[in-house]
Amino acid sequence: MLERVVAALVDWSARRALLVVPLLALLTLWAGVHVVHTLKMNSDTSAMISSKLPWRQQSAALDKLFPQDSGQLVIVVDGSTPDQAEDATQALYEKLAAAPDHFISVRRPDGGPFFQRYGLLFLPLDTLQKMSDSIATAQPFIGSLRADPSLRGLFDMLALAADGIASQSAGLAMIQRPLDAIEASLTSTLDGKPKPVSWQTLLMDRPVEPRDLRHLILTQPVRDFSALSTAAAASKFIRDEARALGLTPDKGVTVRLTGSVALQDEELQTATQGLGTALTISITLVLLLLLVALRSAKLIVASFITLLVGLVLTFAFASFTVNPLNPISVAFAVMFIGLSIDFGIQFGVRFGQERFLDADPSTVLRRTGYAMARPLTLAAVAIAVGFASFLPTDYRGVSELGLIATAGMIITLILNLTLLPALLALLKPSGAPREMGYRWASSIDDFLLKQRRWILAAFGLVTVLGLVAAFWLQFDYNPLHLRDRKVESMATILDLMRDPLYSPFSVQVLAPNIDAAQDIAKKLSALPEVSAVLTAESFIPQDQDAKLAVIGDLQFLIGPTLDTTETKPPPTDDEIRASMKNCAEKLRHALPDLPVAQRLAAALDRAATGDAKLFPQLTEVLVAGLDARLKMLALALTAEPLDLSKLPEDLRREWIAPDGRARVQAMPSGDSNDNNTVTELVTAARTVAPDATGTAVEIYEAGRAVSNAFRVATIIALISITLLLGLLLRRLRDVLLVLAPILVAGFATILVCVATGLEFNFANIIALPLLLGIGVAFTIYFVVNWRKGVTHPLTSSTARAVLFSALATAASFGSLALSTHPGTAGMGLLLLVALLIMLSTIFLFLPALMGPPPSRPE
Q1: Are strands 662-668 and 475-476 parallel, antiparallel or unpaired?
Q2: 327-342 pLDDT, tens digit each
Q3: Which of 773, 721, 748 is closest to 830 using CA atoms?
Q4: Is 25 within the bounds of a domain?
């Protein structure tokens, strides 16, 4: 029945080719125009997993209460000195805060007026006391610099200190550190390598810590989700402003972008660039394989036109059903080429074989349709079922891919039974008909039958080993591992992750109030898997009374000095030269045995006799940051008792919701780029707060959701295809013959993955259920021939068609492995490996498994 219907359809399409081809051409033209004007791309990857899952709802609830933490574009500012880092960050922050067209919100989590005023209270008491003593000792010099914050004032202050040492009214320890810093800066600048002095370090009298050299700006950019780079305008604005402010590496400052928005935008750019390359390579390889397989230019043209029409119509289907496409579903284009061309090769090779047997064109097409009806239909339905198995999963990205690809298989089947015959009828492929099979493969068939026990035993052993290896199969749920480590956003986030406090993977808990939040924080802090816990109370310093007493004493001593508003006018070049020479002379006289003093004196002589054009640069590196540091010190000395009610509203809002609920954040202990660290953090945190959420929970649960989704998809596909085969083949033996090679290939693929350390992830896990459908399609052709009594399957035209169909599919998938995007490349690599394994089982294992054909063939 099926054969007669398909043969009639093929015959009708060929006889009415002048009707079929124009109608489909008009349909394709309309579909193409519709796709160009309506099909969109949504690059919001957070929407690719079902929002109905409990952990997604918990995350959504937290985001609703604290919306400022979602969709962040993080700016990382690094300076060569603490002063540079602070000044650069504040300058850029002020520019961004004044650009509401580009940013919904702009925050400084580690700086700004609040931390400038209360920062001393967050220091340990002994560190604060040491700093206070150092500043008190330097009070005379601070007063001198406050009155004249210039090169003249700096060198006059050093000269005064040298006089004090010479008269033994001052000790060397008082100026040792300033001498070291100023000499190093002056000498390096004279040598053409400017090195700014950090007055913050000198005033604080403590070693520079990595966090002193780095500050963050957290922004929520205005995004355009219809564009590939959703925050392109905001990112460009940041970079333009940074350049305008002179925040460049040659001036000791680097500005980098990261955060979820930058990561997504750069990932999609990389993936799309890779996809375009993969598509080009795929089409080129497919054309070359068609040339070898079909041996006819007209057959190739007809097959390729059919493929392109199918691709356009499938895009049109996507525009009506799942529009906009997501970053996963858009990958169906490359896969469609490899899968769709299979039908064209199967039909074309059979057409060539029938031409070899019969010269009448109408008879050839009708007989081709009759012969290919059952295998092509079975293959199309099997592949469609394989893709349709994605539909009920919670992984929306792949579910939509499954819907598009399922429709694509149906579309390409219809086109290969209508448009392709019509094109062949119009083009009338010429040339002498040739045998399409491989007669030389007869000896291989005989060998496989003769040694079938050993072959079956070998493949059986591989299957058992693969089954055992499955227990060690790993799923890598970390999305960062799928990204290009060389792009700025990824390189920056990896750099940040060296400090656990900057890790993007944290656990967050929503508490009913601040007291409950503190109780939870206390319990989380006791966990070894947690390195730090933050709440609103984290911004209320401890030991305030003792620290305020130290600050009060310091304010009493140097407050009046810092409050002075009278400063000398800027010095002239001659005054600068005179102060340099005077300072050099004083240092030589007062400190003849101190090497650093003598080096500084020599450097001052060089500068005093040099070109005055150098003085602005010396001002920049030696004293430019001084006045700002003194003003910050004056502000810090006005600190007063601090409690939650005095926290700035924006800082309070980060941790306490309007309804009083409070947020608790736990940071991981260890390398948060290690999945084990994240798993241990989530597991441990849930012992304290079972409803914990946060990025660590999200990627952990997303990994579970995706792996479970594909597990379900594979089971559904296996059951569905088994039922389908049972319905159409009606013999359990034949159903098992079709399924056995796929199962063997599946376990062999798992064995290779475990042996080579190739882990499944969000991208490449698509291989398993997909290859189930593809494998069934290929094995069906052989089993159908075997049922018909074909004794040497590898010599048939079917073997040629399957081989080149598999190679075309491998070319399509394998081209993905050349992508610059690690996720896409990994997916292509696994698909290629799995397909090659599948091909070996079909050409070696299946003939041995089938054995001689039935004594009563169909």
Answers
A1: unpaired
A2: 667 667 766 776 777 7
A3: 748
A4: no
Report the distance separating Cα 722 and Cα 49, nearest Å: 28
- Return d(Cα 178, Cα 157) in angstroms, integer: 11
Q: How many CB atoms lie within 10 A of CB 543?
A: 12
Our count of domains for the chain comes to 1
Please give the DSSP secondary-structure letter assigned to residue 330. Answer: G
Residue 509 falls inside a structural domain: yes
How far does the chain reach from its first CA to its final CA, in angstroms? Answer: 14
Q: How far apart are CA 264 and CA 818, in angstroms?
A: 21
Which bin fits 794, alpha (ψ -120 to 50), beta or left (φ > 0)?
alpha
Q: Classify residue 593: in a domain, yes or no.
A: no
Cβ burial of 265 (10 Å; 0-12, 13-18, 19+) is buried
Q: How far apart are CA 459 and CA 744, in angstroms?
A: 7
Q: What is the mean pLDDT of residues 729-744?
A: 88
Confidence of residue 141 (pLDDT cuts 50, 70, 90): confident
Q: In this structure, are residues 713 and 389 in contact, taking their beta carbons and an 8 Å threshold?
A: yes
Contacts of 384 (CB under 8 A, 6+ apart): 405, 406, 409, 410, 773
Rounded to two decimals, what is the model's pTM? 0.81
Q: Examine the pLDDT at 520 and tell me if it is beyond 90.
A: yes
User: Helices then strands (H, E): number in the chain?
Assistant: 33, 9
With a CB cutoff of 8 Å and minimum separation 6, the contacts of 222 are: 101, 102, 103, 104, 231, 233, 234
Instruction: State residue 643's pLDDT score.
Output: 92
3-state secondary structure of 820: coil
pLDDT in tens, 203-218: 877 788 888 999 999 9
Q: For residue 371, give the H/E element and its range.
A: helix 361-388
Question: What is the distance between the alpha carbons of residues 602 and 294, in angstroms, rounded to a whole number?
Answer: 84
Amino acid at position 730, single letter: R
Judge whether 826 and 765 are in contact, CB under 8 Å.
no
User: What average pLDDT does the segment 186-214 reach?
Assistant: 88
Q: Residue 527's domain spans which residues?
A: 490-541+644-699
Sheet holding 507-511, edge to edge: 507-511, 662-668, 530-534
Task: Tell me whether residue 657 is in a domain.
Answer: yes
Measured distance CA(313)–CA(306) in Å, rounded: 11
Q: Quick check: 359 pLDDT over 60?
A: no
3-state secondary structure of 689: coil
What confidence score (pLDDT) does residue 26 get? 96
* Helix, coil or strand: residue 662: strand
Look at residues 725, 718, 717, 839 and name the one whose alpha carbon lies nearest to residue 787.
725
β-pair type (760-761, 475-476): parallel
